[in-house]
Design goal:
Blueprint: H1 6-9, H2 38-47, H3 50-54, H4 60-70, E1 77-80, H5 82-94, E2 100-105, H6 110-117, E3 121-126, H7 135-143, E4 148-152, H8 164-173, E5 178-182, E6 203-208, H9 210-213, E7 221-224, H10 227-233
Parallel strand pairs: 2-3, 2-4, 4-5, 5-6
Antiparallel strand pairs: 1-7, 6-7
The structure holds pyridoxal-5'-phosphate.
Amino acid sequence: MVRPRKAVARLKKYRPPLEGRGGKMRLDFNENTVGCSPVVVRALRRVLTSDWLARYPEYEEGRKILAKYFGVEPKEMLLTNGTDDAIKMICDTFVDPGDVLVVPAPTFPVYQFFHEIAGGRLVGVRYDEDFRLPIEKMVAAVKKRARWVALANPNNPTGTTVSKKDVATLLRAAAGTVVLVDEAYFEFCGETVLPWVRKFPNLVVTRTFSPRHSKPSSTRVTSAGTSKRCGPIAPSSAGGSTPWASPMCRVPPILS
Ligand SMILES: Cc1ncc(COP(=O)(O)O)c(C=O)c1O
């Protein structure tokens, strides 16, 4: 038998429910329980032809529209196949074996998943008993040569937010570290650091259509970053993104 890499063999199995969720109140994946907007359904019906389904998507038009929506240049944004794909691209681009990722604990497990596949090590900074994130401990952990930091804001599963002041503190302290601010739940809190992507060259912001727009079945991640950031990430994405993927932006990255 050909053995997988050690980093892969060590991974804990992720066991999501693979069937039997239809017709039930599904809260386990943070899906929108009232369904997708009828406007989206109408738009999809309009374009859904056998030819459309048979073609790899053309990204440029959608990218321009989304860039306008997010207030960034198209070249500052990548489209990815969901936030998960954006996270994988960050690991493919920046993580060597032994590199450190700093995350709040607990948080969305996918950062750890792709980081460990790349052979990286995880440092978790625990929330205090009032579910506040001790930002000074995050900063201290980052200063010990972290390669990247992942901050879901708002966080999953705590539902807590980190103030913009604290995010700025982290960004300044982590000038040589990639800082991903995952704004998958931005629409539930309204605070964003997306405009900072031009100010902080180490910042990547992701947004997703999944939770707010209730479209996980056709997820589009848009991450916006500055061109410096998108520059290094883009080559790892097979020409902007894989032919079947959606959007991700980089240097101030937005994913949606
Ligand atoms: C914090 C966070 N980021 C990203 C995602 C997944 O986003 P996507 O469906 O775009 O991969 C989730 C889904 O649970 C999440 O909780």
